[in-house]
Design a protein that fits this description.
disordered C terminus; seven-stranded mixed β-sheet
C-alpha cells in the first residue's frame, strides 16, 4: 500500500488508540442488521403522492407504530399519531385549534413527546448512536439523547426527566421538538432511497421532487427515458429540447418550463401565432385536477404545440442521416409525405393524413428550419443551459444517477436489457464495434456523461446518442422498435400507432432469462433480483408485478394519474430490510388534507417477495464492502505506523527496512 497515503491517513488517526478504536467501531457496525432500502419508480412529476409515500416510508412508519403501541393505543389513536409523524406542522395546528383548553393541550404535549421519544428509540434500535445523533433535530440533540438513553428512571433521575419535558413545554419549544422528532422518525425508518427512473414527464411538480431528493439523506437514481431527455436538452441536444417542450405543451405543463425554470417561451409563441391555427390533434390534454384552462390559453398552447412538434420532426432528420448505426431511416417521415395528396407511406403502407400543420415545411427540403425556427430553438437552448435552478437539478441528476445500479446483490434498471426473440442479448454497432448487454449500457452511459460534460457541442455522437436513448430501437430506456409520435398526431388508423415492445418484456416472465441477465451483470443469480420500472403493471387486468418466481419485480404501478385507470392502482413501491423484501401497492392519493382530517392512508396490500433465511447484516451489503476496505486500510496503517515503530516523515525519521 502507498506509504504516502498512509502518512496522510495518520494525520487523522494520530495514535494507535484511535486506529484501534475505529477498527473496533467499523467491525461492530458490520454485525448490525442492514438498513431498510426503499424503492420507488416512475414518479412522473407527481410530487404530492411521492412525498406522502416518502413521509410514511411506504407504510414502514405505521408498522413501527403498530409494533410498539399495539394493545396500548386504539386504531384511531395510532392513525392520529401516524398522521402527526407524516405531517407534524399541519397536524399540530389542527390539534391546537381543537384543544379544549391549555391544560389539556399541556397534557397532550407531555404524552406525545414521551411517545415520540419511544418511537425514535424503537426505530433507531439497529443503528449506532453516532448515526442516530446525525438524524436528531440539531437544536435538541443533547436533550433528546438524555431522554433516549435514560437510565435509573424509577429512582434518582425520574424527576430530572420529567422536568426536562415540563420545561420544553413551558418554554414554548414543544412544537419544534415534536416536528424535529417526526422528521427524525421518517429518516430512521428508511436508510436509503432508490429512485428507479422517470422523475420527469407529464406531472406538474418534478422540480419539487428534485428539491426533495437533493435534501434527502441517502439516495441514488437510475435514469429513466424522460430523465435522459431532460439531461440531453441541458447537454445541448436541440431535438431532446424540442421533445420535452412538446410533451409539456401536450400535457398543459408549460409552466414548469416558464415559471419554475424561468425559460422565456415568448419567441416560440410569436412563431406559433404567425404560422399555426387551432388544431384538434394538438389541443392540450388537461388534467381535471388542475385549474381551469380558458379558451384563449388553450388556443395559445395548441399553436405552441404544433410549432415545437414541427421543429422536432425537422431536427430528427439530419441525425438519422448522419448516424446510420441508429438504423432509423424508416423514421424519415417528413420525406415520405405526399404533400399534394396529404398521405404518408410508412412500413410499406399508405395512410391518409389528417389535422396536418405543415405550413413551415419545404416539401423539397423537409429538414430545413426556417430562420425564425432556428432562432427560437437556439434561444430556448441558451435559456435552458443558463437556468440556475435547472442546472442545479440536472447536475444532481447526473451526480446521483446512472443507467443501472448493482446494489446489495440486486440489479436496478428503469427500462430493459435489449434482447432478441431467443433471449440472447441484442447487439448494436456503434462506431464500428458491436455491443450488447452490460457492455451496451456501459457505452450508453459513457456517451451520456461525455455529452453532459460538453454542453457547447450540439451535434456530436454523444449528444445524438442521448436522443437515441429516448427513441431508438436498442435503447435500454425506450424498449420499443420505434416511437410513433408522428402517426399519433396525423393518422386516424390506430394500427399505425402501435409501438412494438422489445422481447425483453415478454421474456422477463421467465426465470432463466432473469438469471441470465443477473449473470451478465456479475450478480448472484440465486440470490439477486431485477428491480424494474418503466411499464405500468395492469393489476386491474390481473398482471402480477412479481415475475419469474420472484427474480423480476416491476414497481411502476401508476404514480402518474394518467395511468391509474389502466393500472387500477396508484403505484408500487418496494421495501427491503434485513428480513427480506416486501412489495407495497398503493391506493390513489387524494390529498394531504384528506390524510390530516381523516387519517386516510394510501397503502393497500403488502406482498412478500423474498424472506431472508437469516437476518441480513451490514457485512453482506455494498456498505459492508466499503467498511471492509476501510478496515483493511486501517490495519495496514496499524502495522506500518504503530506496530513496527514507523513515525511521520516530519523530522523524526523512519525505522530502517
Amino acid at each position: 500500500m502507498d506509504t504516502k497515503y498512509l502518512d496522510l491517513l495518520a494525520e487523522k488517526y494520530d495514535s494507535e488508540e484511535k486506529v484501534v478504536t475505529e477498527i473496533i467501531n467499523l467491525e461492530a457496525i458490520l454485525n448490525l442488521p442492514k438498513g431498510t432500502e426503499h424503492f420507488v419508480s416512475d414518479l412522473h412529476g407527481e410530487y404530492q403522492a411521492f412525498q406522502h409515500v416518502l413521509r410514511n416510508g411506504s407504510g414502514n412508519v405505521k408498522v413501527k407504530i403498530r409494533d410498539l403501541f399495539e394493545g396500548e393505543l386504539s386504531d384511531q389513536e395510532m392513525n392520529e399519531f401516524a398522521t402527526l409523524v407524516y405531517y407534524p406542522e399541519d397536524k399540530l395546528q389542527l390539534i391546537k385549534e381543537a384543544a379544549a383548553d391549555s391544560q389539556s393541550l399541556y397534557g397532550w404535549y407531555a404524552e406525545t413527546i414521551k411517545r415520540m421519544i419511544r418511537l425514535v428509540a424503537f426505530a433507531s434500535s439497529k443503528y449506532t448512536r453516532s448515526k442516530v445523533r446525525k438524524a436528531l433535530p440539531e437544536q435538541f440533540v443533547y436533550i433528546v439523547e438524555e431522554l433516549l438513553y435514560k437510565t435509573d428512571e424509577l429512582t434518582n433521575k425520574k424527576e430530572y426527566y420529567t422536568k426536562i419535558i415540563q420545561r420544553i413545554i413551558s418554554l414554548g419549544q414543544a412544537d419544534k421538538l415534536i416536528t424535529g422528532l417526526a422528521y427524525t422518525i421518517q429518516r430512521l425508518v428508511v436508510d436509503h432511497l432508490h429512485v428507479v427512473g422517470d422523475i420527469y414527464d407529464r406531472g406538474p411538480e418534478p422540480d419539487k421532487i428534485m428539491d426533495t431528493l437533493i435534501n434527502y439523506h441517502s439516495v441514488d437514481i437510475q435514469w429513466g427515458n424522460h430523465d435522459v431527455l431532460w439531461l440531453g436538452a441541458f447537454a445541448g441536444s436541440k431535438v431532446c429540447l424540442a421533445n420535452l417542450v412538446r410533451i409539456c405543451a401536450r400535457y398543459d405543463n408549460l409552466d414548469i418550463i416558464e415559471d419554475v425554470y424561468g425559460i422565456n417561451l415568448r419567441p416560440l409563441l410569436n412563431l406559433a401565432e404567425r404560422y399555426y391555427d387551432d388544431n384538434r390533434a394538438f389541443r392540450p390534454k388537461h388534467d381535471a385536477g388542475k385549474k381551469e384552462i380558458f379558451d384563449d390559453e388553450q388556443l395559445q398552447i395548441t399553436k405552441i404545440h404544433q410549432a415545437i412538434a414541427m421543429i422536432q420532426f425537422k431536427l430528427e432528420i439530419p441525425i438519422i442521416k448522419r448516424r446510420p448505426d441508429f438504423n432509423m431511416s424508416g423514421r424519415l417521415l417528413l420525406e415520405n409525405v405526399d404533400y399534394d395528396r396529404e398521405t404518408l407511406t410508412v412500413n410499406g403502407k399508405t395512410y391518409a393524413l389528417q389535422d396536418t400543420c405543415f405550413a413551415t415545411v419545404d416539401p423539397k427540403h423537409p429538414d430545413r428550419l426556417l430562420e425564425e425556427e432556428e432562432q427560437v430553438i437556439d434561444k430556448l437552448l441558451f435559456s435552458f443551459q443558463h437556468s440556475e435552478k435547472l442546472a442545479r437539478h440536472m447536475n444532481f441528476l447526473m451526480r446521483k444517477g446512472s443507467l443501472y445500479l448493482k446494489y446489495n446483490g440486486n440489479l436496478l434498471i428503469h427500462g430493459c436489457i435489449p434482447l432478441n426473440e431467443d433471449g440472447s442479448m441484442k447487439k448494436m454497432v456503434i462506431s464500428g464495434k458491436a455491443y450488447a448487454g452490460r457492455g451496451l449500457l456501459d457505452v450508453f452511459e459513457h456517451y451520456i456523461r461525455y455529452g453532459f460534460a460538453h454542453p457547447e457541442v450540439t451535434d456530436d455522437l454523444a449528444t445524438d446518442m442521448m436522443w437515441y436513448l429516448w427513441t431508438g430501437e436498442n435503447s435500454s430506456l425506450f424498449g420499443k422498435k420505434e416511437m410513433t409520435t408522428f402517426e399519433r398526431y396525423f393518422i386516424a388508423d390506430k394500427t399505425s400507432h402501435i409501438e412494438q415492445k422489445n422481447p425483453y418484456y415478454k421474456l422477463r416472465e421467465e426465470e432463466e432469462i432473469c438469471r441470465k441477465i443477473l449473470k451478465e451483470f456479475h450478480l448472484n443469480a440465486d440470490q439477486g433480483h431485477i428491480i424494474n420500472g418503466h411499464t405500468p403493471v395492469e393489476e386491474i387486468n390481473g398482471e402480477n408485478p412479481i415475475k419469474a418466481h420472484g427474480k423480476m419485480i416491476v414497481i411502476d404501478g401508476g404514480f402518474s394519474k394518467a395511468y391509474q385507470p389502466k393500472t387500477g392502482i396508484a403505484g408500487y413501491t418496494l421495501l427491503y430490510n434485513s428480513y427480506g423484501m416486501q412489495l407495497v401497492a398503493h391506493k390513489r392519493f387524494t390529498s394531504k388534507e384528506d390524510v390530516l382530517l381523516h387519517g386516510t392512508d394510501v397503502l393497500s396490500v403488502k406482498r412478500l417477495v423474498d424472506r431472508e433465511l437469516k437476518r441480513k447484516k451490514v457485512l453482506e451489503t455494498n456498505i459492508g464492502k466499503k467498511l471492509l476496505q476501510q478496515i483493511s486500510v486501517l490495519n495496514h496503517l496499524l502495522e506500518y505506523r504503530y506496530k513496527h515503530g514507523n513515525r511521520s516523515a516530519d523530522g523524526e525519521g523512519r525505522k530502517a527496512d
